[in-house]
C-alpha cells in the first residue's frame, strides 16, 4: 500500500473532527472519500498532509511511518495536497504560483517541468506573467493541480476540486484526474460530487461526523442507494 | 539657495527614516505584526557601537575599537536582539487563540522588549547623549553655496541601495517568492513545503539589519547617540510607513523621505518644536484623502510589495 492510515484521530479543542479513521490507497489507485459538509473530510486530508497534528493514530506512506514528519518533509516524500478552494496565491503571478509548487526542489529540472505544465494548460501559458487573480475558477483549479504536480508527487490528494466549477469544467477536471492516474499518479479524492467521484475512483469510503460509515468498491457504493441517502444528504444537489 | 539646502537636509534626514520605515513595513506586510521593538534595535546599534568605541568590548576583552568595527558590532547586536524578539514574541502566533489575543500578545510583548532593551542601556550608560566621533564628522562638499555632508550622502545612498537590494530579493528570488506566498496564505505555503518557522526569522534578520544600519548611519551623520534616540526616529518612521502605505516597500521609502522633508521645512519655517505637529497633521490629512496611504493596497494581507 502506498498510503496506510490507521485509527487517525483529530481534535480541535472541543471539536472531534476525525474519529479513528483507517483507510488505504494502493499504488496507481484512485480512492475517494465521500461525505456531506462537515463530515471531517478536509480535516482528514490536512492531517495526512501534515498541516494538522493528529491526536491519535498512525500514517504510513511509501513503506515508512510519517506520523511525526512535518508537512514540508511529506511534500519531499511525494505526498501533496491540493487544498479546498484552490488557494491560489493571488498576489503572485501564474508562473510564480507554479514555481511555489516546486519549493522543495531545485535545479534545471524545475523549469523544464514548469514548461510541461504550460504545454498541458495553454490557458495558463497565455497568462504566465499575469497575476493569478485574473484566472477564472476553472483555470485556478488547473493552476492548483499544476502547482501540485511540480512537487513531483507520488500521491496527490484533492480536496473538493469540483466545488464552484461549471459542469463543463468539472468534466474537464475529472478527465484530467483520470489522465494523471493513467500516467501512474495515485490519487486520494475528497468530493461532494458523489456520482462523478465514484465514476473515476476504484474504491471509496463514506465519512459521517468524522467517522467511517462504509467502504467498498466504487460499484458497491454506487449501487447502495440507501447509503447515499443516509450519509450524503446533499449528494443530489452536488451531482 | 536656503530652500535647496533645506531640501537636501530633509532628504538626508529622511534617509534614516527610510531604513526604519522599511523595517516596519516588512514585518507588517509579511507577518501582519506591528513590531514595536524596531526603534530600540535602531538605538542598540548606535549605543552599543558607541560603547565599543569608547570602552572596548565588555569584560575588558579589548581596547576601545575603531568606529567601523564598533558600528559593525552594534549592527550585529541589533540583528541578534531582533532574533531574540522573534523567539519570544512572534512565536506566540503559533498558539492560535482565534481572538484578539492572537495579535495583542506579540504586540504587547514587543513593547515590553522595547522598554527592557532601552532601560538595560540606561542602567549601563545613563541617560546622557554621547558623542560619536568619526574621522570625517565635518567632511563637507561645498558647491554653489550649498553645504553637502559627504557621510550623509553616502549614508543615503547605502540606505537606498539596501532597500533596492531587498526589494529585488523579494521580487525575484525563491526566498522572496516564498515570503510573499507566506504573507498572503501561510496555511497554503506550508502545503508547498515552506517551513514557516525557518522563514520568519529571516524577516527579523532583515529588520535587525535595516534598523542597525539606520542606527549606525545616525551615529555617523549626527555624531551623537542616546538611549532615547530610537523613540523619535521610530514614531516618525511609523508615520512614514503609514504615509507610503502599509506593506509597500517603495511606499515606505517615499514616506520616509517625505517625513524627513516635512520635518526640515517645519523646523525652518515654524521652529524646532513644530515638527511633530506638522508631520502627524500631514499624515492625518493624507489619510483622510487617501486612507490606504500614497502607494498602499486596499487590504492588508493581500497583494503587497
UniProtKB/TrEMBL annotation, chain A:
This is ABC transporter ATP-binding protein. CDD domains: ABC_TM1139_LivF_branched. GO terms for biological process: L-amino acid transport. Residues 3-234 form the ABC transporter domain. PANTHER family: HIGH-AFFINITY BRANCHED-CHAIN AMINO ACID TRANSPORT ATP-BINDING PROTEIN LIVF. GO terms for molecular function: ATP binding; ATP hydrolysis activity; branched-chain amino acid transmembrane transporter activity. InterPro entries: AAA+_ATPase, ABC_transporter-like_ATP-bd, ABC_transporter-like_CS, BCAA_Transport_ATP-bd_LivF, P-loop_NTPase. It comes from Rhodosalinus halophilus.
TrEMBL record, chain B:
GO terms for cellular component: plasma membrane. It is a multi-pass membrane protein. Its main location: membrane. It is found in: Cell membrane. The chain crosses the membrane at residues 12-34, 41-61, 67-85, 105-124, 144-170, 199-218, 238-260, 267-289. GO terms for biological process: D-alanine transmembrane transport; L-alanine transport; L-isoleucine import across plasma membrane. GO terms for molecular function: L-isoleucine transmembrane transporter activity; L-leucine transmembrane transporter activity; L-phenylalanine transmembrane transporter activity; L-valine transmembrane transporter activity. Pfam families: BPD_transp_2. It comes from the Bacteria. Keywords: Amino-acid transport, Cell inner membrane, Cell membrane, Membrane, Transmembrane, Transmembrane helix, Transport. Belongs to the binding-protein-dependent transport system permease family. LivHM subfamily. This is Branched-chain amino acid ABC transporter permease. It comes from Rhodosalinus halophilus. The lineage of its organism: Bacteria, Pseudomonadati, Pseudomonadota, Alphaproteobacteria, Rhodobacterales.
Amino acid at each position: 500500500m502506498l498510503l496506510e492510515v490507521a485509527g487517525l484521530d483529530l481534535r480541535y479543542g472541543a471539536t472531534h473532527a476525525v474519529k479513528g479513521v483507517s483507510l488505504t490507497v494502493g499504488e496507481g489507485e484512485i480512492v475517494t472519500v465521500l461525505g456531506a459538509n462537515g463530515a471531517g473530510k478536509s480535516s482528514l486530508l490536512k492531517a495526512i498532509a501534515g498541516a494538522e497534528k493528529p491526536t491519535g493514530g498512525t500514517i504510513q506512506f511509501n513503506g515508512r511511518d510519517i506520523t511525526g514528519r512535518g508537512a514540508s518533509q511529506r511534500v519531499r516524500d511525494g505526498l501533496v495536497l491540493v487544498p479546498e478552494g484552490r488557494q491560489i496565491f493571488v498576489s503572485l503571478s501564474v508562473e510564480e504560483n507554479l514555481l511555489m509548487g516546486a519549493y522543495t526542489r531545485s535545479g534545471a529540472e524545475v523549469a523544464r517541468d514548469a514548461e510541461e505544465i504550460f504545454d498541458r494548460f495553454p490557458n495558463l501559458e497565455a497568462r504566465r506573467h499575469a497575476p493569478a487573480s485574473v484566472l477564472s475558477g476553472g483555470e485556478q483549479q488547473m493552476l492548483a493541480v499544476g502547482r501540485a504536480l511540480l512537487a513531483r508527487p507520488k500521491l496527490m490528494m484533492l480536496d473538493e476540486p469540483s466545488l464552484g466549477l461549471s459542469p463543463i469544467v468539472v468534466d474537464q477536471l475529472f478527465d484530467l484526474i483520470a489522465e494523471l492516474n493513467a500516467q501512474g499518479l495515485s490519487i486520494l479524492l475528497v468530493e461532494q460530487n458523489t456520482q462523478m467521484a465514484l465514476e473515476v475512483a476504484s474504491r471509496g469510503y463514506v465519512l459521517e461526523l468524522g467517522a467511517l460509515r462504509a467502504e467498498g468498491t466504487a460499484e458497491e457504493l454506487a449501487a447502495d442507494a440507501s447509503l447515499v441517502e443516509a450519509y450524503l444528504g446533499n449528494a443530489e444537489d452536488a451531482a | 539657495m536656503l530652500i535647496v539646502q533645506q531640501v537636501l537636509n530633509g532628504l538626508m534626514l529622511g534617509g534614516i527614516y527610510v531604513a526604519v520605515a522599511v523595517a516596519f513595513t516588512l514585518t507588517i506586510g509579511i507577518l501582519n505584526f506591528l513590531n514595536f521593538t524596531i526603534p530600540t534595535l535602531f538605538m542598540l546599534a548606535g549605543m552599543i557601537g558607541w560603547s565599543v568605541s569608547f570602552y572596548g568590548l565588555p569584560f575588558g576583552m579589548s581596547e576601545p575599537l575603531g568606529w567601523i568595527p564598533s558600528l559593525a558590532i552594534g549592527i550585529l547586536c541589533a540583528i541578534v536582539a531582533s532574533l531574540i524578539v522573534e523567539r519570544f514574541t512572534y512565536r506566540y502566533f503559533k498558539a492560535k487563540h482565534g481572538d484578539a489575543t492572537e495579535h495583542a500578545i506579540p504586540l504587547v510583548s514587543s513593547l515590553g522588549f522595547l522598554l527592557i532593551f532601552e532601560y538595560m542601556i540606561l542602567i549601563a550608560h545613563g541617560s546622557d547623549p554621547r558623542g560619536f566621533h568619526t574621522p570625517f564628522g565635518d567632511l563637507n562638499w561645498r558647491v554653489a553655496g550649498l553645504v553637502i555632508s559627504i557621510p550623509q550622502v553616502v549614508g543615503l545612498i547605502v540606505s537606498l541601495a539596501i532597500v533596492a537590494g531587498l526589494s529585488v530579493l523579494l521580487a525575484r528570488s525563491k526566498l522572496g517568492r516564498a515570503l510573499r506566498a507566506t504573507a498572503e496564505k501561510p496555511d497554503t505555503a506550508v502545503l508547498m513545503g515552506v517551513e514557516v518557522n525557518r522563514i520568519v526569522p529571516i524577516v527579523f534578520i532583515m529588520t535587525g539589519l535595516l534598523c542597525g544600519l539606520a542606527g549606525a548611519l545616525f551615529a555617523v551623520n549626527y555624531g551623537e547617540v542616546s538611549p532615547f534616540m530610537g523613540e523619535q526616529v521610530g514614531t516618525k518612521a511609523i508615520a512614514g510607513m503609514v504615509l507610503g502605505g502599509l506593506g509597500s516597500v517603495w511606499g515606505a521609502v517615499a514616506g520616509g523621505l517625505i517625513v524627513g522633508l516635512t520635518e526640515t521645512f517645519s523646523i525652518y519655517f515654524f521652529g524646532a518644536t513644530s515638527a511633530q505637529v506638522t508631520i502627524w497633521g500631514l499624515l492625518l490629512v493624507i489619510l483622510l484623502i487617501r486612507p490606504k496611504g500614497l502607494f498602499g493596497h486596499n487590504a492588508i494581507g493581500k497583494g503587497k510589495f
